[in-house]
Amino acid sequence: MLIKLKRKSVDATSEAVVARLQGFPDKTRRTLTMDNGTENAGHAKITVEIGIKCYFAYPYASWERGTNENINGLVRWYLPNVTDFSKISCRHIARIESLINNRPRKCLGFKTLIEVASSFVALQG
Predict the structure, then answer these.
(1) Which residues form the domain of 28?
(2) Rounded CA separation 122/50 (Å)
(3) Does residue 120 sit within a domain?
(4) Helices within the chain (DSSP H only)
(5) CA distances in angstroms from 97 to 19, 38, 82, 125, listed in the order given
(6) How far apart are CA 52 and CA 28, in angstroms?
(7) CA–CA separation, 75 and 71 (whole Å)
């Protein structure tokens, strides 16, 4: 899930996460693992509004969020560290998210995240 924020604040982050996750079926929203950045201090709002439990990785324990770190690397392939995000549109961010979600993964038997998620949702009814 990639979201472009105008500012990195508690309210902006929690509002964007809530808005985005509300679009997912209830049965697919179980937990959310966050890092310890101050922008994630609004986790209680996310829990109350969406009904999911938020967890935090230990500081400097990136291995606890391996999938997230991998996705960060993929995003940086499209948007290197020198990127001026003020010049990147929300549409461009959505395109990058689509490219990443439609990329076959070895750990998923070379299926895409979209294929696996669609199968999960179909099984949940």
Answers:
(1) 10-88
(2) 21
(3) no
(4) 10-21, 43-50, 66-78, 90-101, 113-124
(5) 17, 24, 19, 25
(6) 10
(7) 6
Distance (Å, whole) CA 27 – CA 7: 30
> Residues, the chain, total?
125
Which residue in 54, 19, 49 sits closest to 37, CA to CA? 54
| 97, part of any domain | no
Tokens of 47: 């829990």
pLDDT mean by block of 10 residues, the chain; 125 residues: 90 94 87 88 94 89 82 93 93 96 93 88 72
> For the whole model, what pTM was predicted?
0.80
In a domain, 93, yes or no: no
What pLDDT score was predicted for residue 100? Answer: 94
**Domain presence at residue 43:** yes
Overall number of domains in the chain: 1
